[in-house]
Amino acid sequence: MAKTKHSLLKGHLVPCPQCGKDVLDHMTECPFCHASIKPTAYSPMDPAQIKKIRRTLTIIGMIIALLVFLATR
Ligand SMILES: [Zn+2]
Question: Residue ranges of the domains in the chain?
Answer without folding.
Answer: 1-42, 43-73
